[in-house]
Specification:
Largest sheet: 7 strands, mixed
Number of strands: 7
Strand content: 15-25%
Oligomer: single chain
Helix content: 25-40%
């Protein structure tokens, strides 16, 4: 495991996502999380991936094709994920919040749609389902989304959800934060 945010998130996913799982990549980006979810959920699994940028959809589809994997990659906001799945049917939802690496630095996730998407993800999760977030902040996108997401997650009902917020105490700059949410049984 790499000792960085993506390494921690990917290790968490490897422990939680089982063959046959129904997973959602809320922010497809370059497709790496989508591909990982496809491998973990296997042929019996189902993966949906969302992105608002056509370049991200294209990159994800290209990576999946190169690796012989299959997912439904949707050009739409993660805020609309409930249009594509039924409540309490999803095992895992993954978010990489921030911007597309190498993409337009002026296009990044925003607090209003992200909070809507997080709430949708929580409604879609089965009991025992998990949500994993790699929260990138600073730079062009600033701190508004980070602060809104953290406050929103801290306010979740502790009888229904367990929220683990992680912070790198001695990393320079603004290291992304790994965040995990479990929907209680």
């Amino acid at each position: 495991m790499q000792l960085n945010t993506l390494g921690v998130v990917h290790d968490f996913l490897a422990r939680c996502v089982k063959p046959g799982s129904f997973c959602i990549d809320a922010t497809a980006g370059k497709g790496r999380d989508t591909a990982l979810l496809c491998r973990l959920s296997g042929e019996a699994g189902r993966v949906l991936a969302f992105d608002i940028q056509q370049d991200a959809v294209n990159a994800t589809n290209k990576l999946l094709q190169e690796q012989g994997l299959c997912a439904r990659v949707i050009l739409d906001s993660h805020a609309n994920m409930e249009q594509y799945a039924q409540p309490e049917t999803v095992d895992c939802v993954v978010f990489n919040l921030g911007r597309l690496p190498g993409g337009d630095p002026k296009i990044f996730t925003q607090a209003p749609s992200t909070l809507t998407a997080i709430d949708a993800a929580l409604r879609l999760l089965k009991e025992g389902g998990v949500l994993a977030i790699a929260l990138y902040y600073g730079g062009e996108n600033g701190y508004t989304e980070r602060d809104a997401v953290l406050e929103h997650l801290k306010a979740l009902d502790d009888r229904r959800y367990t929220v683990l917020l992680c912070d790198w105490a001695n990393r320079r700059g603004e290291p992304p934060m790994p965040i995990f949410v479990w929907k209680e049984h």
